[in-house]
Amino acid sequence: MLTLAKLANVALSMLWGFAVTFVFVRALPGAEFQAFLLLIAFNNFTQSAEFGLTNVIYARLRRYWLARGGQGPGDEGDRGDFRREELGVLFLFLGGIVVAGALIVALAIALGWIRTGLPGIFLIFFLASALNVLLLLAKRALAAVDRNLLWEALDFLRRVLGLAILFAVLAGFDLMASVSLQLVLNAGAVIAGMALIQQRTGMHLRQWVAFRAGGGHVRRTYLRDVGASAVLTLSEVAAYNAPYFLIAALVHDGRLMLLFDFTFKMIRSVTTATRATIEGALPRLTRYWFAGEAAPFRAGLRRALLVALCVALCADIVLVALGQRLFTILFDGRAALGTGELWLLCALLLLLAVICTSVYVQGALGRFGALLRQSLPFLAGSLLSVPLALAAGGGTGVTAHTGLSYMMIYMLVFAGVAALHGVALRRLARSL
Fold first, then answer.
1. What are the distances in angstroms from CA 146 to CA 62, 193, 417?
2. Which residues contact 292 (CB under 8 A, 6 or more apart)?
3. 335-362 b/e with 16+ CB inside 10 Å = b?
4. Which of helix, strand or coil describes residue 118?
5. Strand segments (E) across 216-367
6. φ, ψ dihedrals at 37, nearest 5°
7. DSSP 299-343
8. Model pLDDT for residues 336-371, shown as the tens digit of each residue
9. How large is the average pLDDT for residues 55-77?
């Protein structure tokens, strides 16, 4: 039931990513839409600037909750050093990231770095989207305390209402009113999530703002994990989003930007679907790991990888059948997706399945240092992909084959990283 609920939300999340482009490319002039894509890229950075702290809190709170019920490591009373004030510290910190991001966007618009004649719409849309950082905290915390299904139901309602508000723009609803209602809807979901966490964990209201006590505890007990997770998250975010900025800086051609935007959307869709299937198995996998049950853990890990590959294969089938038509419709006929580019994207998504399985399972177990060793080569390859694609054309700029060259190089980057994660998964399975 939980996996089905997660998959329903995955479907809505995937639809949201494409729906935003579908609506905004029609609601905004061409130059405004190019600026909007840069806003989306910065928004991706901001949403991921939680530095992996939600992964840390999931691993710690999950271990505490299992030990609280006598299912974790050690004896029944071994609850580790988790304190409820940690949740309050993360809530305040992530809220600060949202505010700081909004201020940076406002400054970028004022200085002309993001050139738009619609600053209010851009800023409100950014705030509504950036609140996903706090929604992610609520989701991970409730998953750790076995309230996954309740949160998924609430999140499903939020996503349905959000899509209805977004598509209303195509029927003549005001764009400013639409993004404003999105902001109100997401803020209400954050409040509901925090209330559920407080009720489930027995937190007191003052613990949400106990920054000194909670911050001191975080600094004393797991600052090392936070540091490793922060570096890992920054590396991953930069690796996935850097091509947006490199293309904008080095390539004066809209098609390559649209090609990468479509690739990014497909990557995000597959990672979201894979995360949903793996998160459905994480309660069992973490229980087996912390209890030292090697055989069921290895079997569960194999199943998780197989399911991830099936998700990617399903995405490939859809791409082969509808990918080129979807690309044309999505970008309102401004560019077309080549057959070679399509097949390279299909191969990339299969490789992505291995990477996702490794990242989500190891992250839930708190193995951030190990993940960093696979992430840094990914960052290097992603940063080099655009310059190498341009160099493949003889350094003369964009040619008819630049998109194909870029997709070939980008796919090879994923192949190398997937090999590193495959080795890491084998070591993880043998470590118990």
1. 9, 14, 33
2. 73, 432
3. bebbeebbbbbbbbbbbbbbbbbbbbbb
4. coil
5. none
6. -65, -40
7. HHHHHHHHHHHHHHHHHHHHHHHHHHHHHHHHTTTS----HHHHH
8. 899 999 999 999 999 999 999 999 898 888 787 788
9. 66
* Cα 353 to Cα 340: distance, rounded to the nearest angstrom: 21
Residue 72 DSSP label: S
Residue range 14-41: mean pLDDT, rounded: 83
Angle between helices 223-250 and 368-392 (to 10 degrees): 10
Q: What is the CA radius of gyration of the chain?
A: 22
Domain residue spans of the chain: 1-221, 225-427
Q: What is the pLDDT of residues 68-118, one digit of tens each?
A: 764 444 444 444 567 778 888 888 888 988 898 899 989 988 888 778 888
Is-above-0.85 flag for pTM? no
Residue whose tokens read 């510290």: 89
Mean pLDDT computed over 269-285: 83
User: Do 16 and 162 form a contact (C-beta atoms < 8 A)?
Assistant: yes
pLDDT range class, residue 223, cuts 50, 70, 90:
low
